[in-house]
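Board notes (copied after class):
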Amino acid sequence: MIEQFKSWWDSITERERQLSILSAAFLFLAIIYWGVWKPLSTQIEASEKRLASSEQTLAWVEEKAGLLVQAGAGSSRVGLQPLTLQQIISRSAKQFGINFSRIESKTDQVEVVITDIEFDQFILWLTNLSNQNFISVVSTDFSKIDPLGHVKVNRLVLAN
């Protein structure tokens, strides 16, 4: 194969050799650009967009976290209530039009999962639980979802 190339190379004119070298150099640069540089720059740009989106979500969650902490401020219970903690939470949720994906009773605590709820409605409900029933937020894990202003409550632990 090398012999065939050498014989072909010797048979072409000087001008054809220069044109061949120039074409090979252009082909090499094109392969470098479209095979390496362009995919790499596209990947970097996509990563920067994901980072900006994640930073925006983090800022939104940090902004709303203070409201959630305030909603869980009531921690003491005055007087006995005939209803269980789960019953109180279920009735209160029904009043606010909240549907649970899952509700699980634990010792002196209830764990709740809500697939989609408007954040302001969620805060109002927690504030009502705190003010009316002295139920507080022990821990929570939620994430922002579309449409704007809605959250998914992955885990909400409530206690007296």
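Comment from the instructor: DSSP finds four helices and four strands in the chain. The longest helix spans residues 14-71.
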